[in-house]
Amino acid sequence: MNASEKPGVVRWGVLGAADIAVRRLIPAMHEARGNEVVALASRSHDRARALVSELNIPRAYGSYAELLADPEVDAVYVPLPNTMHAEWTIRSAEAGKHVLCEKPMATTVAECDAMIAACRAAGVKFMEAFMYRFHPQHARVRALVASGAIGEPTMIRSSFCVRMQRPPEDIRYSAALGGGALFDVGVYALDAARWLAATAQSEATSASLGISVDPVGITGQTALNAAGVDENAAAALAFPSGLLAAVTCSFQAAAGGTYEIIGPQGKITVHHAFTPPPDTAPRLTLTTPEGATDETFAPNQNQYTMMLEAVAQSILNNTPTPLADAAGRGNIAIIESLLSPASRTA
After folding, report:
1. Which of 68, 78, 217, 238 has the greatest count of CB atoms below 10 A from its CB?
2. CA–CA separation, 308 vs 25, rounded Å?
Protein backbone atom coordinates (compact mmCIF):
# COMPACT_ATOMS: atom_id res chain seq x y z
CA MET A 1 0.00 0.00 0.00
CA ASN A 2 1.13 3.56 -0.60
CA ALA A 3 2.51 5.32 2.45
CA SER A 4 -0.42 6.80 4.36
CA GLU A 5 -0.60 9.63 6.84
CA LYS A 6 -3.39 7.67 8.52
CA PRO A 7 -2.10 4.22 9.51
CA GLY A 8 -4.87 1.67 9.56
CA VAL A 9 -6.92 3.49 6.91
CA VAL A 10 -7.27 2.84 3.19
CA ARG A 11 -7.81 6.08 1.26
CA TRP A 12 -10.09 5.59 -1.73
CA GLY A 13 -10.44 7.41 -5.01
CA VAL A 14 -13.58 6.88 -7.11
CA LEU A 15 -13.39 6.90 -10.91
CA GLY A 16 -16.64 8.30 -12.24
CA ALA A 17 -20.03 9.32 -10.92
CA ALA A 18 -21.96 6.12 -11.56
CA ASP A 19 -25.24 5.65 -9.71
CA ILE A 20 -23.88 2.62 -7.83
CA ALA A 21 -20.97 4.72 -6.54
CA VAL A 22 -23.11 7.66 -5.47
CA ARG A 23 -25.91 5.64 -3.83
CA ARG A 24 -24.03 2.67 -2.42
CA LEU A 25 -20.24 2.60 -2.39
CA ILE A 26 -19.39 6.14 -1.36
CA PRO A 27 -21.82 6.14 1.60
CA ALA A 28 -20.37 2.75 2.58
CA MET A 29 -16.83 4.14 2.38
CA HIS A 30 -17.80 6.83 4.86
CA GLU A 31 -19.29 4.19 7.18
CA ALA A 32 -16.82 1.31 6.87
CA ARG A 33 -14.06 0.99 9.46
CA GLY A 34 -10.58 1.35 8.00
CA ASN A 35 -11.84 3.17 4.91
CA GLU A 36 -11.88 6.81 3.83
CA VAL A 37 -12.94 8.29 0.50
CA VAL A 38 -10.63 11.19 -0.37
CA ALA A 39 -11.15 11.89 -4.08
CA LEU A 40 -13.59 11.56 -6.95
CA ALA A 41 -12.94 12.04 -10.66
CA SER A 42 -15.38 12.76 -13.45
CA ARG A 43 -14.90 13.67 -17.09
CA SER A 44 -16.56 16.96 -16.10
CA HIS A 45 -14.68 18.92 -13.45
CA ASP A 46 -17.86 20.84 -12.66
CA ARG A 47 -19.72 17.57 -12.12
CA ALA A 48 -16.91 16.28 -9.91
CA ARG A 49 -16.88 19.49 -7.81
CA ALA A 50 -20.63 19.34 -7.32
CA LEU A 51 -20.52 15.71 -6.24
CA VAL A 52 -17.65 16.05 -3.77
CA SER A 53 -19.51 18.90 -2.10
CA GLU A 54 -22.69 16.83 -1.93
CA LEU A 55 -20.94 13.60 -0.83
CA ASN A 56 -18.41 15.06 1.62
CA ILE A 57 -15.28 14.11 -0.34
CA PRO A 58 -12.18 16.34 -0.04
CA ARG A 59 -10.92 16.48 -3.64
CA ALA A 60 -12.41 16.61 -7.13
CA TYR A 61 -10.64 15.86 -10.40
CA GLY A 62 -11.70 16.56 -13.97
CA SER A 63 -10.05 13.42 -15.36
CA TYR A 64 -9.41 9.89 -14.20
CA ALA A 65 -5.68 10.22 -14.90
CA GLU A 66 -5.43 13.18 -12.50
CA LEU A 67 -6.89 11.10 -9.69
CA LEU A 68 -4.45 8.26 -10.38
CA ALA A 69 -1.58 10.73 -9.99
CA ASP A 70 -2.73 11.68 -6.49
CA PRO A 71 -0.17 10.22 -4.02
CA GLU A 72 -2.74 10.32 -1.20
CA VAL A 73 -4.99 7.79 -2.96
CA ASP A 74 -4.17 4.22 -1.91
CA ALA A 75 -6.93 2.34 -3.72
CA VAL A 76 -9.34 2.98 -6.56
CA TYR A 77 -12.95 1.94 -7.03
CA VAL A 78 -13.89 1.47 -10.71
CA PRO A 79 -17.67 1.79 -11.38
CA LEU A 80 -17.27 2.86 -15.03
CA PRO A 81 -19.20 1.36 -17.97
CA ASN A 82 -18.39 -2.32 -18.39
CA THR A 83 -16.19 -1.89 -21.46
CA MET A 84 -13.96 0.54 -19.51
CA HIS A 85 -13.24 -1.76 -16.56
CA ALA A 86 -10.16 -3.35 -18.09
CA GLU A 87 -8.45 -0.13 -19.21
CA TRP A 88 -8.88 1.70 -15.92
CA THR A 89 -8.10 -1.28 -13.73
CA ILE A 90 -4.84 -1.72 -15.63
CA ARG A 91 -4.02 1.99 -15.51
CA SER A 92 -4.82 2.08 -11.80
CA ALA A 93 -2.50 -0.86 -11.16
CA GLU A 94 0.27 0.77 -13.18
CA ALA A 95 -0.15 3.85 -10.97
CA GLY A 96 0.39 1.67 -7.90
CA LYS A 97 -3.23 1.72 -6.71
CA HIS A 98 -5.15 -1.25 -5.33
CA VAL A 99 -8.37 -1.87 -7.29
CA LEU A 100 -11.95 -2.73 -6.40
CA CYS A 101 -13.75 -3.17 -9.73
CA GLU A 102 -17.51 -3.14 -10.14
CA LYS A 103 -19.29 -6.16 -11.64
CA PRO A 104 -18.94 -7.55 -14.22
CA MET A 105 -15.16 -7.89 -14.02
CA ALA A 106 -14.87 -7.16 -17.76
CA THR A 107 -16.63 -8.04 -21.01
CA THR A 108 -14.17 -10.66 -22.30
CA VAL A 109 -11.96 -13.33 -20.78
CA ALA A 110 -8.95 -11.74 -22.51
CA GLU A 111 -9.64 -8.49 -20.66
CA CYS A 112 -9.93 -10.37 -17.36
CA ASP A 113 -6.58 -12.02 -17.93
CA ALA A 114 -4.95 -8.67 -18.72
CA MET A 115 -6.39 -7.07 -15.58
CA ILE A 116 -5.23 -9.91 -13.34
CA ALA A 117 -1.76 -9.88 -14.88
CA ALA A 118 -1.39 -6.11 -14.53
CA CYS A 119 -2.37 -6.10 -10.86
CA ARG A 120 -0.10 -9.00 -10.03
CA ALA A 121 2.81 -7.41 -11.88
CA ALA A 122 2.29 -4.15 -9.97
CA GLY A 123 1.95 -5.93 -6.63
CA VAL A 124 -1.46 -4.40 -5.89
CA LYS A 125 -4.64 -6.03 -4.62
CA PHE A 126 -7.47 -6.58 -7.09
CA MET A 127 -11.01 -7.72 -6.35
CA GLU A 128 -14.39 -7.64 -8.07
CA ALA A 129 -17.11 -5.95 -6.01
CA PHE A 130 -19.45 -8.91 -5.43
CA MET A 131 -20.89 -7.40 -2.28
CA TYR A 132 -23.66 -9.99 -1.89
CA ARG A 133 -21.21 -12.69 -0.81
CA PHE A 134 -20.47 -10.74 2.37
CA HIS A 135 -24.02 -10.85 3.71
CA PRO A 136 -24.38 -13.28 6.65
CA GLN A 137 -27.30 -15.13 5.05
CA HIS A 138 -24.83 -16.81 2.67
CA ALA A 139 -22.57 -17.89 5.52
CA ARG A 140 -25.62 -19.60 6.98
CA VAL A 141 -26.21 -21.41 3.68
CA ARG A 142 -22.62 -22.65 3.73
CA ALA A 143 -23.04 -23.87 7.29
CA LEU A 144 -26.31 -25.68 6.50
CA VAL A 145 -24.79 -27.42 3.48
CA ALA A 146 -21.72 -28.42 5.49
CA SER A 147 -23.93 -29.85 8.24
CA GLY A 148 -25.66 -32.20 5.79
CA ALA A 149 -29.03 -30.53 6.31
CA ILE A 150 -30.12 -31.30 2.73
CA GLY A 151 -27.77 -34.19 1.98
CA GLU A 152 -25.25 -33.98 -0.84
CA PRO A 153 -26.56 -31.28 -3.20
CA THR A 154 -27.42 -32.29 -6.75
CA MET A 155 -29.19 -29.24 -8.20
CA ILE A 156 -28.99 -25.43 -8.12
CA ARG A 157 -31.50 -22.86 -9.33
CA SER A 158 -30.27 -19.27 -9.50
CA SER A 159 -32.07 -16.28 -10.99
CA PHE A 160 -31.95 -12.49 -11.09
CA CYS A 161 -34.75 -10.89 -13.09
CA VAL A 162 -35.76 -7.22 -12.98
CA ARG A 163 -38.22 -5.07 -14.87
CA MET A 164 -35.66 -2.63 -16.26
CA GLN A 165 -37.58 0.62 -16.68
CA ARG A 166 -34.87 2.97 -17.90
CA PRO A 167 -34.65 5.22 -20.96
CA PRO A 168 -33.33 3.69 -24.20
CA GLU A 169 -30.10 5.72 -23.94
CA ASP A 170 -29.19 4.12 -20.59
CA ILE A 171 -25.83 2.31 -20.74
CA ARG A 172 -27.56 -0.96 -19.81
CA TYR A 173 -29.06 -0.97 -23.30
CA SER A 174 -25.81 -0.11 -25.08
CA ALA A 175 -24.03 -2.99 -26.79
CA ALA A 176 -20.98 -0.76 -27.28
CA LEU A 177 -20.67 -0.21 -23.51
CA GLY A 178 -21.25 -3.82 -22.49
CA GLY A 179 -24.94 -3.60 -21.71
CA GLY A 180 -27.44 -6.40 -21.43
CA ALA A 181 -29.10 -8.53 -18.77
CA LEU A 182 -26.24 -11.03 -18.51
CA PHE A 183 -23.61 -8.45 -17.65
CA ASP A 184 -25.91 -6.41 -15.41
CA VAL A 185 -27.89 -8.95 -13.35
CA GLY A 186 -27.13 -12.35 -14.81
CA VAL A 187 -23.56 -12.17 -13.58
CA TYR A 188 -24.89 -12.37 -10.01
CA ALA A 189 -26.92 -15.50 -10.73
CA LEU A 190 -23.97 -17.12 -12.50
CA ASP A 191 -21.60 -16.23 -9.69
CA ALA A 192 -23.98 -17.69 -7.11
CA ALA A 193 -24.24 -20.94 -9.09
CA ARG A 194 -20.44 -21.29 -9.25
CA TRP A 195 -20.09 -20.48 -5.55
CA LEU A 196 -22.85 -22.90 -4.55
CA ALA A 197 -21.32 -25.64 -6.70
CA ALA A 198 -18.03 -25.20 -4.86
CA THR A 199 -19.83 -25.13 -1.51
CA ALA A 200 -21.59 -28.39 -2.39
CA GLN A 201 -18.40 -30.27 -3.21
CA SER A 202 -16.21 -28.98 -0.39
CA GLU A 203 -16.18 -29.14 3.37
CA ALA A 204 -17.79 -25.73 3.48
CA THR A 205 -17.56 -23.56 6.58
CA SER A 206 -18.83 -20.11 7.37
CA ALA A 207 -15.34 -18.82 6.52
CA SER A 208 -15.23 -20.19 2.96
CA LEU A 209 -16.30 -16.96 1.33
CA GLY A 210 -14.14 -16.94 -1.77
CA ILE A 211 -14.71 -20.40 -3.18
CA SER A 212 -16.11 -20.96 -6.68
CA VAL A 213 -15.84 -23.59 -9.39
CA ASP A 214 -16.21 -23.50 -13.16
CA PRO A 215 -18.67 -25.66 -15.11
CA VAL A 216 -17.48 -28.31 -17.54
CA GLY A 217 -20.58 -27.93 -19.70
CA ILE A 218 -22.59 -24.84 -20.74
CA THR A 219 -25.78 -24.73 -22.80
CA GLY A 220 -28.21 -21.85 -23.07
CA GLN A 221 -30.12 -19.28 -25.02
CA THR A 222 -30.24 -15.50 -25.09
CA ALA A 223 -32.94 -13.26 -26.54
CA LEU A 224 -31.75 -9.97 -28.03
CA ASN A 225 -33.63 -6.71 -28.54
CA ALA A 226 -33.52 -4.64 -31.72
CA ALA A 227 -30.27 -2.99 -30.60
CA GLY A 228 -28.56 -6.35 -30.24
CA VAL A 229 -28.56 -6.34 -26.42
CA ASP A 230 -29.65 -9.43 -24.49
CA GLU A 231 -32.83 -8.86 -22.46
CA ASN A 232 -33.47 -12.47 -21.41
CA ALA A 233 -31.14 -15.42 -20.94
CA ALA A 234 -31.30 -18.95 -19.60
CA ALA A 235 -28.45 -21.40 -19.09
CA ALA A 236 -27.85 -24.95 -17.91
CA LEU A 237 -24.48 -25.58 -16.29
CA ALA A 238 -22.86 -28.93 -15.55
CA PHE A 239 -20.16 -29.01 -12.86
CA PRO A 240 -17.33 -31.51 -12.41
CA SER A 241 -19.06 -33.21 -9.47
CA GLY A 242 -22.12 -33.99 -11.63
CA LEU A 243 -24.17 -31.22 -10.02
CA LEU A 244 -26.40 -29.29 -12.43
CA ALA A 245 -27.52 -25.65 -12.30
CA ALA A 246 -30.30 -23.74 -14.02
CA VAL A 247 -29.59 -20.00 -14.29
CA THR A 248 -31.91 -17.28 -15.61
CA CYS A 249 -31.81 -13.50 -15.91
CA SER A 250 -34.00 -10.85 -17.48
CA PHE A 251 -34.60 -7.15 -18.06
CA GLN A 252 -38.30 -7.86 -18.61
CA ALA A 253 -39.45 -10.25 -15.86
CA ALA A 254 -40.00 -8.62 -12.47
CA ALA A 255 -39.03 -11.61 -10.33
CA GLY A 256 -36.12 -10.32 -8.24
CA GLY A 257 -33.05 -12.32 -7.25
CA THR A 258 -33.14 -15.70 -5.56
CA TYR A 259 -31.32 -19.01 -5.44
CA GLU A 260 -31.98 -22.58 -4.28
CA ILE A 261 -29.59 -25.41 -3.55
CA ILE A 262 -31.30 -28.81 -3.59
CA GLY A 263 -30.32 -32.22 -2.25
CA PRO A 264 -31.96 -35.60 -1.58
CA GLN A 265 -33.05 -34.51 1.91
CA GLY A 266 -34.38 -31.05 1.08
CA LYS A 267 -33.54 -27.62 -0.23
CA ILE A 268 -32.36 -24.21 0.94
CA THR A 269 -33.99 -21.14 -0.62
CA VAL A 270 -32.56 -17.63 -0.27
CA HIS A 271 -35.36 -15.22 -1.14
CA HIS A 272 -33.49 -11.91 -1.58
CA ALA A 273 -30.12 -13.30 -2.48
CA PHE A 274 -28.37 -10.33 -4.04
CA THR A 275 -30.00 -7.04 -3.01
CA PRO A 276 -32.05 -7.42 0.19
CA PRO A 277 -34.65 -4.62 0.28
CA PRO A 278 -34.20 -1.95 2.95
CA ASP A 279 -36.09 -2.23 6.23
CA THR A 280 -36.92 -5.86 5.46
CA ALA A 281 -35.45 -8.84 7.30
CA PRO A 282 -33.73 -11.10 4.72
CA ARG A 283 -35.03 -14.66 4.88
CA LEU A 284 -33.96 -18.13 3.90
CA THR A 285 -36.10 -21.24 4.01
CA LEU A 286 -34.89 -24.76 4.83
CA THR A 287 -37.34 -27.30 3.44
CA THR A 288 -37.06 -30.96 4.46
CA PRO A 289 -39.51 -33.88 4.67
CA GLU A 290 -40.39 -32.59 8.14
CA GLY A 291 -41.57 -29.25 6.73
CA ALA A 292 -40.30 -25.75 5.99
CA THR A 293 -38.42 -23.58 8.48
CA ASP A 294 -37.69 -19.89 7.91
CA GLU A 295 -34.62 -18.15 9.27
CA THR A 296 -34.46 -14.36 9.23
CA PHE A 297 -31.55 -11.94 9.51
CA ALA A 298 -31.34 -8.45 10.88
CA PRO A 299 -32.55 -5.87 8.33
CA ASN A 300 -30.35 -3.15 6.87
CA GLN A 301 -27.06 -4.99 7.23
CA ASN A 302 -24.90 -3.12 4.75
CA GLN A 303 -23.17 -5.69 2.57
CA TYR A 304 -21.20 -2.93 0.85
CA THR A 305 -19.76 -1.83 4.19
CA MET A 306 -18.90 -5.42 5.10
CA MET A 307 -17.15 -5.88 1.76
CA LEU A 308 -15.12 -2.68 2.12
CA GLU A 309 -14.02 -3.54 5.63
CA ALA A 310 -12.83 -6.95 4.44
CA VAL A 311 -11.00 -5.48 1.44
CA ALA A 312 -9.34 -2.83 3.61
CA GLN A 313 -8.00 -5.49 5.96
CA SER A 314 -6.47 -7.41 3.07
CA ILE A 315 -4.76 -4.22 1.84
CA LEU A 316 -3.59 -3.06 5.25
CA ASN A 317 -2.33 -6.50 6.32
CA ASN A 318 -1.08 -7.56 2.88
CA THR A 319 -3.20 -10.72 2.92
CA PRO A 320 -5.20 -12.27 0.06
CA THR A 321 -8.45 -10.53 -0.84
CA PRO A 322 -11.62 -12.31 0.36
CA LEU A 323 -12.49 -13.09 -3.27
CA ALA A 324 -9.56 -14.19 -5.40
CA ASP A 325 -8.45 -11.83 -8.17
CA ALA A 326 -9.46 -14.40 -10.79
CA ALA A 327 -12.81 -15.29 -9.19
CA GLY A 328 -14.92 -13.36 -11.70
CA ARG A 329 -13.12 -14.66 -14.77
CA GLY A 330 -15.27 -17.80 -14.82
CA ASN A 331 -18.48 -15.74 -14.96
CA ILE A 332 -17.24 -13.93 -18.05
CA ALA A 333 -16.25 -17.20 -19.73
CA ILE A 334 -19.85 -18.41 -19.30
CA ILE A 335 -21.28 -15.13 -20.58
CA GLU A 336 -19.00 -15.23 -23.63
CA SER A 337 -20.37 -18.68 -24.41
CA LEU A 338 -23.98 -17.58 -23.94
CA LEU A 339 -23.51 -14.50 -26.14
CA SER A 340 -21.97 -16.50 -28.97
CA PRO A 341 -24.02 -16.51 -32.21
CA ALA A 342 -25.12 -20.11 -31.60
CA SER A 343 -26.93 -19.08 -28.40
CA ARG A 344 -28.74 -16.01 -29.70
CA THR A 345 -32.31 -15.45 -30.85
CA ALA A 346 -33.73 -12.26 -32.32
Report:
1. 78
2. 9
Q: Tell me the C-alpha to C-alpha distance, in Å, between residue 100 and each of 185, 224, 230.
A: 18, 30, 26
Residue 203 has pLDDT above 70, yes or no: no
Q: In what order do the strands lie in the sheet with 35-41?
A: 59-61, 35-41, 10-15, 75-78, 98-101, 126-128
Tens-place pLDDT, residues 78-117 = 999 999 999 999 999 999 999 999 999 999 999 999 999 9
Strands 35-41, 10-15: pairing kind = parallel
Beta carbons within 10 angstroms of residue 42's beta carbon: 23
Among the listed residues 6, 97, 103, 125, the single catalytic one is: 103
* Whole-number Cα distances in Å, 146 to 73, 106, 142, 207: 41, 32, 6, 12
By three-state DSSP, how is residue 261 classified?
strand
Q: How far apart are CA 126 and CA 167, in angstroms?
A: 33
Distance of CA 274 to the CA centre of its chain: 9
103 is catalytic: yes
**218-267 confidence digits (pLDDT tens):** 999 999 999 899 999 999 999 999 999 999 999 999 999 999 999 999 99
Across the chain, what does the average pLDDT equal?
A: 94
CA distances from 181 to 31, 83, 253, 296, 340 (A): 31, 15, 11, 29, 15
